[in-house]
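lol ok so funny story. i was supposed to be doing the assay writeup but got distracted and ended up predicting the structure for this chain instead. priorities right. anyway since i did it might as well share w the group, maybe its usefull for someone
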Amino acid sequence: MLGVAVVGATLTQPATQAIDWLKVNQPVGIVSPSEFNSSIAPKYVQSGKSVVETEVEPVFRNAALPIDRLTQAQNEISSYAALQDDWDGNGASPPDSRQLADAIALLGHLPGGIAIPTPMIGSSGDVGLYWDMPSFYADIAFEGNGSLSIFVKNKQTAEENFASVNDLHSLSQDWFAQMLGRGQNA
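and the output, tada:
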């Protein structure tokens, strides 16, 4: 009899009701870049009213356009100009403005099909770029006044190559293809 009373009490309780939602006419904020993985985002806030709206809007409508990798690399190199003595807390030197200019210039010379390299700066203030791809590793060190050196290692054959260049503005697509290989897409 007790079992019947418990079952009867359970059946007579009101059904659980979903919380009502009310549409808000405010832009949806983008909290993280991962939100670009979804094409729509809900545009609701919780409300005690009985109005329920299910409108959604595209995430990208209110979001800034994503920055391409080339622009990100250029911006990072440009940001190095603000570094002062001891920027790393261990006595690091600031970068040479000529090296910064050369790194940005080289990025502008990259032919299509070559991945955008990652910028780097050493504690000595030396500026460089590097690629760490499945088939090869390469790094470029800028020496200022258009001079640079490049080290490349083929990961499949373990072959290494080193070259110095006196004028980065004279680099051709063939030079990049010879040093980095063709079709090294990002």
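Residues 13-18, 21-46 have pLDDT under 50 and may be disordered. The radius of gyration is 28 Å.
back to the writeup now i swear
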